């Protein structure tokens, strides 16, 4: 009877935690899943420091849009201001515009069928041709990247295939017909969701090999066995501990993703992230080669002592607090990897997909803890695993450091280029 009661309580606790996570997601994501509240308004974004952007906007863009009654309530924003950049990213994400399709000037123009996105200084005749085209698709990017002198080409993309480039004299109707038949890989953003998957999986699993979290869950299991707790009780408290680490680490990642997405200089963030990753890798190698060096990526002594006290209580509230504490203290141990993948997600995909991948990353992050909990829920295996972890702690740090440095170097060379 007690066995079934324990399982019932565990299920109730799991559902409660799942509900808490769902509430957290719902509170953050609604603006991503709902239609843009400004869908019927023309929004124009450029930098206040762009000397040519305002003359083009006033004399060419707004003048052309007024002839189609699309500029009466147009709103103009400076995307170098945090609020302006936040709105730009929000509108871009609402139409699933990949981050790699970017220029000095953005215009999101509502049409009868959907949205026309103008990037750069597009000539008036091309804008007019697009707005009067009977074949205008639901979403279309009209792009002219040259800022100075006479334009020589323009680009079109209709959310299918590759971005197409045409000589400036190419009739719009001809270019549009070819664009709608475009094939090949999509631009970075929607297209590279599949390509990002291996990166998320690999880094999530690498980050999960974390001595901080491993050591504490082994301590939890070993201590419960010394108290002669049942296997169900071990699984219950271990499961609570893992769920709390997941929630805390996910919340940290969500905050970082939002912060990076609002940054005025994402390239600077990427540089800092790559070098942070390399620096943390170097610290792991220093600890391996010179164990007596005082600088260590360990849980602080105060936090470790408090975690031990909480675990010894072997209660649900104490285990929840221990999980939160370990989740917070785990970030300094491996935060470089986390920050790097978050920066990559921000650069390569939309915020909504970034959050989805963040959930996957954190599931992978706690996966080894789940395996350990299930595998060592008997006394013999628990002792053997604890012994192995103590014997190989330094080797884990060695490979962890090498991988972090390698990932940082790859990110620095690949992402920033």
Which key phrases capture this entry?
alpha/beta; disordered N terminus; 2 domains; single chain; 417 residues; Glutaredoxin; 8% strand; elongated; 7-stranded mixed β-sheet
Walk me through the structure:
The chain has 417 residues and is α/β, with parallel strands linked by helices. It folds into two domains: 34-180, Glutaredoxin (3-Layer(aba) Sandwich); 192-414, no CATH class. The protein is built from 15 helices and seven strands. The protein has a seven-stranded mixed β-sheet with strand order 2-1-3-4-5-6-7, sandwiched between helices. A hairpin with a 4-residue loop joins β3 (105-110) and β4 (115-120). α8 (211-226) packs parallel to α11 and α8 (211-226) packs antiparallel against α14 (379-391).
Shape, principal axes of CA atoms: elongated
Total number of strands? 7
Task: Name the strands of the widest sheet in spatial order.
Answer: 2-1-3-4-5-6-7
Order of helices and strands: HHEHEHEEHEEEHHHHHHHHHH
Give the domain tally.
2
Number of helices: 15
Q: What portion of residues is helical?
A: 55-70%
Largest sheet: 7 strands, mixed
How widely separated are the two ends? 62 Å
């Amino acid at each position: 009877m007690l066995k079934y009661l324990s399982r019932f309580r565990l299920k109730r606790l799991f559902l409660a935690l799942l509900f808490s996570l769902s509430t957290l997601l719902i509170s953050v994501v609604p603006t991503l899943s709902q239609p843009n509240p400004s869908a019927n308004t023309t929004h124009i974004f450029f930098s206040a420091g762009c000397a040519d952007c305002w003359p083009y906007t006033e004399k060419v863009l707004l003048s052309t849009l007024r002839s189609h009654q699309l500029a009466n309530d147009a709103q103009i924003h400076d995307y170098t201001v945090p609020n302006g950049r936040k709105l730009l990213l929000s509108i871009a994400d609402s139409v699933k515009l990949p981050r790699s399709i970017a220029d000095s000037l953005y215009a999101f123009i509502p049409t009868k069928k959907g949205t026309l996105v103008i990037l750069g200084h597009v000539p008036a005749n091309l804008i007019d041709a697009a707005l009067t085209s009977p074949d205008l698709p639901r979403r279309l990017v009209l792009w002219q990247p040259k800022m100075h002198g006479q334009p020589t080409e323009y680009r079109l993309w209709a959310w299918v295939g590759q971005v197409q480039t045409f000589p400036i004299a190419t009739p719009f109707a001809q270019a549009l017909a070819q664009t709608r038949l475009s094939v090949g890989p999509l631009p970075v953003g929607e297209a590279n969701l599949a390509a990002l998957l291996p990166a998320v999986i690999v880094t999530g699993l690498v980050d999960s090999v974390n001595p901080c979290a491993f050591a504490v869950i082994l301590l939890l299991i070993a201590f419960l066995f010394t108290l002669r707790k049942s296997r169900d009780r071990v699984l219950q408290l271990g499961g609570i501990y893992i769920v709390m680490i997941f929630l805390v680490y996910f919340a940290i990642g969500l905050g970082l993703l939002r912060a990076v997405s609002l940054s005025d200089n994402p390239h600077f963030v990427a540089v800092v992230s790559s070098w942070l990753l390399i620096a943390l890798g170097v610290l792991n190698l220093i600890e391996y080669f010179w164990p007596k060096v005082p600088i260590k990526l360990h849980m602080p002594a105060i936090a470790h002592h408090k975690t031990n006290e909480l675990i010894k209580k072997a209660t649900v509230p104490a285990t929840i607090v221990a999980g939160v504490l370990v989740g917070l203290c785990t970030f300094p141990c491996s935060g470089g990897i986390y920050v790097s993948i978050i920066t990559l997600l921000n650069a390569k995909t939309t915020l909504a997909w970034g959050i989805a991948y963040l959930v996957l990353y954190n599931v992978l992050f706690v996966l080894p803890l789940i395996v350990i909990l299930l595998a060592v829920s008997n006394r013999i295996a628990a002792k053997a695993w604890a012994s192995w972890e103590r014997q190989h702690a330094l080797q884990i740090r060695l490979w962890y450091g090498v991988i972090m440095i390698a990932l940082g170097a790859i990110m620095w060379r690949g992402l920033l280029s």
